[in-house]
Design a protein that fits this description.
The structure is a single chain. It contains seven helices and 14 strands. It is of the alpha+beta class and 439 residues long.
């Protein structure tokens, strides 16, 4: 940042310095030329033609340098067929006359005709009253004074702009260090959090840094929630596996006759518990993926094909939106739909109806998925308890009572919910699964 600021300052000051140098140089040169033109005008107004046809001044020019040899200020009047009329300051020299042009207006140019002195010359050709000769009036002055003044101005500009650039670069550096100083405080806060002395960035920060600090604190809170969920899942899994392991160990210790059946039964329970907690762990891990999305119709079709093969007597119908998408990984969506549709097929009377995003949904940010069956339903008093792990109302059919618990847990992890009600069309159970809409 300091390097970019220094480069930009250099470019701006260089451009500004060159422009100012040109303006000041032109001003000095114009002032110098105005003085020469003033002398030229005075010469023309004082010039007359004598009886012998030669030009002369009816009054002397006021500048004494015209009387000092090689003073650096000269004048000369030249005409065809006449001797040059020159100032005493020229002494034994004369100004070179360019014969290839004639100037009706004042013409100013530089000349190096004197090897030891560069001249600035102004000339004009006019006809004097009483003469048919075209006289060329010339005033010349050494450029030394003008060049010295220009050099002094450039030197002053260079020093001034160099000091200005140095000051601006130092200011930019201090501003950058001051502006980025809060990041040092953030780094120190992160170090304190890493060593356990702090849990959040709590020091007040400038408004430009606060969005980053808020995002950092939100990330820390998210990670803490994930860690807490992971610890809770591990504890729940350990608790869930403890009872089946105890049953198997007791049976093995007692050398029970049904040890093989007990091991198979309890192993199935443990496998279902592991599947349940793995599903939760996968959902927690994928929850932070902002690009997760799944088409509900495609997932429902895949689940329908699997359930129909598993329960050939079940008829499963789909209706609703074919384009509705949810912000959930497809594997998690199909696991939830699979549990719900499988339960409807297992405990219903043979008809399952799935409606995707029906019209009149309560919240446009959520996609409603209705799963209805024609079974006996679930009494209203039991609809809350049925979501508990291991809770089962029909113990005559195989299962572990974890399906609805998995659906509830995964839906809540993604910010959704699941509700139970009575189906008006089929008379059985209506499950409303509401999941966040993608996009």
């Amino acid at each position: 940042m300091i390097g970019i600021a220094a480069a930009w300052i250099f470019v701006l000051l260089l451009g500004g310095g060159l422009a100012l140098d040109r303006i000041l140089t032109n001003t000095v040169t114009t002032s110098f030329d105005d003085q020469l033109e003033y002398v030229l005008t005075a010469m023309i107004s004082s010039a007359e033609i004598g009886p012998d046809g030669e030009v002369f001044f009816n009054r002397p020019l006021g500048d004494q340098r015209f009387l000092e040899p090689n003073s650096g200020l000269y004048w000369q009047i030249s005409g065809a067929g006449h001797s040059d009329f020159t100032s005493r300051s020229l002494w034994d020299r004369a100004l070179r006359i360019e014969t290839d042009h004639s100037d009706a207006q004042p013409h100013i140019y530089n000349s190096d005709q004197f090897s030891d002195d560069e001249l600035r010359i102004i000339e004009q050709s006019i006809y004097l009253p009483g003469s048919k000769v075209r006289w060329r009036f010339m005033v010349a002055q050494s450029r030394d004074a003008m060049d010295l003044q220009i050099r002094q101005l450039r030197q002053t500009l260079t020093y001034s702009f160099a000091l200005l650039a140095l000051g601006l670069i130092i200011l930019a550096g201090l501003q950058t260090l001051y502006g980025l100083w809060p990041l040092r405080k953030v780094r120190e806060a992160i170090q304190a959090m890493r060593t356990g002395r702090m849990d959040r960035v709590r020091d007040p920060m400038p408004i430009e840094v606060m969005p980053m600090v808020e995002e950092l604190n939100a990330l820390l809170e998210h990670n803490e929630k994930q860690a807490e969920e992971a610890r809770r899942h591990a504890g729940n899994l350990a608790h869930a596996l403890k009872t089946p392991l105890t049953v198997v160990m007791n049976s093995a210790t007692a050398r029970a006759d049904d040890l093989a059946d007990t091991v198979i039964r309890e192993a199935a329970v443990m496998r279902r518990q592991v599947d349940h907690h793995l599903a939760r762990a996968r959902a927690v891990g994928r929850r932070g993926q902002a690009l997760a999305r799944a088409n509900v119709w495609e997932s429902a079709q895949a689940v329908e094909r699997a359930v129909v093969r598993l329960y050939p007597h079940v008829r499963c119908d789909l209706d609703g939106s074919k384009t509705a998408s949810v912000a959930i990984e497809r594997q998690d969506l199909e696991e939830m739909l699979g549990n719900l549709v499988e339960n409807a097929g297992k405990y219903g009377g043979g008809s399952v109806f799935v409606t995707i995003d029906p019209k009149g949904s309560a919240d446009p940010k959520l996609v409603d998925i209705w799963i209805e069956d024609d079974g006996t339903g679930i009494p209203e008093i039991e609809r809350t308890r049925i979501f508990d792990r291991g809770a089962r109302l029909d113990t005559g059919k195989p299962g572990t009572g974890l399906g609805l618990a998995i659906v509830r847990d995964v839906a809540e992890i993604y910010g959704g919910l699941v509700e139970l009600d009575e189906s008006e069309d089929l008379g059985g159970l209506l499950v409303r699964l509401r999941l966040p809409r993608a996009g």
